[in-house]
Write a structure and sequence with these properties.
The chain has 389 residues and is α/β, with parallel strands linked by helices. Helix content is 33%, strand content 16%. The protein has one domain: 3-Layer(aba) Sandwich (Rossmann fold), CATH 3.40.50.10300. Helix 2 packs parallel to helix 6 and helix 6 packs parallel to helix 7. Belongs to the PPC synthetase family.
């Protein structure tokens, strides 16, 4: 361990013992090796900076974890083993698809009002071939026949079942392993230990560092023991810079793996410059640049000694139809070569007459993370082939 690493990890407090989590990571690694699987370590969500040792107040940063969770879904369905290192209570693969709507959990529930009924919408019979037997359904036969029992509502039964069965499949076959962090110290401690554990996979491993990492923190010896009291006075907090651990990730923790980092900016004129600087500083494989105002629609890939590649979100037929109903020109910017996507975001936030909009079914969205994942798998395969020769 370098002096920089050692001093940082001495100056942060780990609020729990992570030995059990790291044992699960070791078992995950062994499963992947046994099955000759390619692996992606995805970091996701934001990190917090505690103000007190007995934490009441803290600094947080912008990230709900949608990019990481959606990317995990894509790679799982493409046969990768996924180690999902995410912020506690951030968005999770498949579960998130039941959360990102103008609804809440109770919306998906209903009451079975018929004796011997199954709580399902008979109008959805065309979807029954998705479920081969009773073991493939959410509602067991014993629950189906209980009158007035709470169950998945008839309008959402098949959509909820589909997401649940995906999640269940990957958890049970061992290809999805999840570990949580909360503080920036916990995140970097886990990133170091997990990436080191997985480094034996060499070129078969992608590290996809999508977490939003705090740039500053308060060392333990500068931190208040108890809650900082409010005395109607101004408060001055001094923060130290968090060491740039990507260099250690690339050079020491897993030097033979495919490393992906992100660069988020608000000013498009400096985005390429920042991405190239990151590549130069850390000498890793890929920087994905994106703008805060348009990160759901396009990103730009920067690689060593290669021309940049723009990756855009593809619309599903459903989305194209809905955009055309709202405004014939609203989807134009996603189909041409410029980066002006203001129309699309305007329609995301504008208060339209929802009575004239058809509700999009759960799971039919085609997020940009699928396009990112498709290109990344192509680049990863090239990396594997290059390093196997």
């Amino acid at each position: 361990m370098t002096e920089v690493e050692e001093n940082f990890f001495k100056s942060v407090d780990l609020h729990k013992d992570f030995s059990e989590d790291l044992n699960r990571v070791k078992n995950f690694k062994e499963r992947a090796i046994k099955n000759n699987a390619k692996v992606i370590l995805i970091t996701s969500g934001g990190t917090i900076v505690p103000f007190e040792k007995n934490m009441v107040r803290f600094l947080d940063n912008f990230s709900g974890g949608n990019r990481g969770a959606t990317t995990a879904e894509y790679f799982l369905q493409k046969g990768y083993y996924v180690l999902f290192l995410s912020r506690k209570n951030s968005l999770q693969p498949f579960v998130k698809n039941l959360m990102l709507h103008e609804t809440n959990f109770f919306t998906y529930l209903g009451i079975n009002e018929n004796d011997g009924g199954n709580g399902r919408n008979n109008n959805n019979n065309n979807n029954e071939n998705e479920f081969k037997n009773d073991n493939d359904t959410i509602l067991s036969p014993s629950l189906d026949v209980i009158k007035n029992h709470v169950c998945i509502g008839e309008d959402y039964y098949y959509e909820v079942s589909k997401e649940y069965l995906k999640w269940k499949k990957f958890c049970e076959n061992g290809s999805l392993e999840r570990v949580n962090f909360e503080t920036v110290g916990e995140y970097l401690y886990l990133l170091k230990n997990i990436s080191t554990e997985l480094s034996i996979l060499k070129s078969n491993l992608i590290v996809y560092a999508a977490a939003a990492v705090s740039d500053f923190y308060i060392p333990l010896d500068m931190m208040a023991q108890h809650k900082i009291q409010s005395k109607n006075q101004s408060l001055t907090i001094t923060l130290d810079p968090v060491p740039k651990m990507i260099k250690f990730l690339v050079d020491n923790w897993c030097p033979n793996s495919y490393i992906v980092t992100f660069k988020l900016e608000t000013d498009q004129t400096i985005l390429n410059e920042k991405c190239l600087a990151s590549l130069s500083n850390y000498n890793h494989q890929l920087v994905i640049g994106n703008l805060l105002s348009d990160y759901r629609n396009w990103v730009i890939f920067h690689q060593q000694q290669s021309k940049p590649i723009i990756v855009k979100r593809e619309l599903t037929q459903f989305q194209i139809q809905q955009q055309q109903k709202l405004s014939p020109s609203s989807s134009y910017s996603l189909k041409n070569d410029n980066h002006d996507h203001h129309h699309d975001h305007h329609h995301d936030h504008h208060d339209h007459d929802h009575q004239h909009q058809q509700k999009q079914p759960i799971g039919v969205d085609h997020p940009i993370e699928y396009n990112i994942g498709e290109k990344l798998i192509e680049l990863h395969n090239e990396f594997i082939n290059k390093n196997s020769n």
